[in-house]
Amino acid sequence: xxxxxxxxxxxxxxxxxxxxxxxxxxxxxxxxxxxxxxxxxxxxxxxxxxxxxxxxxxxxxxxxxxxxxxxxxxxxxxxxxxxxxxxxxxxxxxxxxxxxxxxxxxxxxxxxxx
Length: 114
What we know:
Elements: E1 4-7, E2 10-12, E3 18-24, E4 34-39, E5 46-51, E6 57-59, E7 67-72, E8 77-82, E9 91-97, E10 103-104, E11 108-112
Parallel strand pairs: 2-11
Antiparallel strand pairs: 1-3, 3-8, 4-5, 4-9, 5-6, 7-8, 9-10, 9-11
């Protein structure tokens, strides 16, 4: 059974940084694209970033230049480095695996405030 577990969320002041991790159990990680969604209270879920199995990334306009997605296939883990965080980045962040997404993690809260 494939399971995804996010970590690394928390509270940070505007302008700060956080690094999210997504640990994936099972052996299918390297074969699949993965990515990150976020959802803020009262807002629709937003695709933040994705990365193909070959490492090609893609970003939402709202995070381009501030966020970096990466993956370590040897560790079955994906990452989202978030820099220059803004209050509007506050949301629950979910990692997913597969296109269309086949598996979704439980989420980790990111709060950006002063």
